[in-house]
Amino acid sequence: MGSPNRVYVPSVLEADGNAIGMGCFSTEQIAWEVMKTFLGKSEQMNLEQATIVAWDVDVVGEEAMTVLTKLEGKICPVCQRRTFWVDLEHLSALCYGSQCSAWIEQSTVDPEIIDCGWPPLRFLKQVKEIEEAYNELRTIGADVLASVEEHPETATQQLYESTYQTND
């Protein structure tokens, strides 16, 4: 097997400006798998940004580098942890926090529509504006929190506890 012509480098940027590289991979798919695994633990760190960059081998200068994705870390509108990673260029976002997976993305059918959802409740909604999507997800988070306070013995309590658990 020969050397690859292109390599893929996932990395994150901490709030203090420190960059953390996750390796150098021969396929974009592997780079994404490594990035997703890392972002699943992002609530344990203070991360602001995540990127995957493709580098062409044996090319000098800026032409060698292509930024494939740039994600910004935000507070999840459902679980309220800093595990909601937003790709502003492609209008998509996903919470990588355990037991959450809230998401927002532009509709693949109608670009004027924004889809959002929360898998634990099989919630899916279509809206016209990004802020509406955030508001729908915030409402779900508030409803779950209120449900826990009213019915602490339910499965919602178990979901809440697994979502809001602290790592001591």
Explain what this protein looks like in three dimensions.
It is built from 3 helices and 9 strands, in the order ββαβββββββαα. A hairpin with a 7-residue loop joins β7 (103-106) and β8. The N and C termini lie far apart (46 Å). It is an alpha+beta fold and 168 residues long. The model has no long low-confidence stretch (mean pLDDT 87). The protein has 2 domains: 1-74, Immunoglobulin-like, CATH 2.60.40; 76-168.
Fill in the keyword field for this structure:
168 residues, alpha+beta, Immunoglobulin-like, 2 domains, nine-stranded antiparallel sheet, 32% strand, elongated
Element layout with pairings:
Layout: E1 6-14, E2 19-21, H1 28-39, E3 47-56, E4 65-74, E5 84-87, E6 92-95, E7 103-106, E8 114-118, E9 123-127, H2 130-150, H3 155-163
Antiparallel strand pairs: 1-2, 1-3, 3-4, 4-5, 5-6, 6-7, 7-8, 8-9
Structure at a glance:
With 168 residues, the chain is of the alpha+beta class.
Instruction: Give the SSE order as H and E letters.
Output: EEHEEEEEEEHH
- Uncertain segments are none
Question: What is the alpha-carbon Rg in Å?
Answer: 18 Å
- Beta strand %: 25-35%
- The overall pLDDT average reads 87
Dominant shape = elongated
Sheet with the most strands: spatial strand order:
2-1-3-4-5-6-7-8-9
| Portion in helices | 25-40%
Give the tally of structural domains. Answer: 2
- Main β sheet profile: 9 strands, antiparallel
Could you give the distance between the termini?
46 Å
Which secondary-structure class do the elements indicate? Answer: alpha+beta
Number of helical segments with 4 or more residues: 3
Per DSSP E runs of 2 or more residues, the count of β-strands stands at: 9
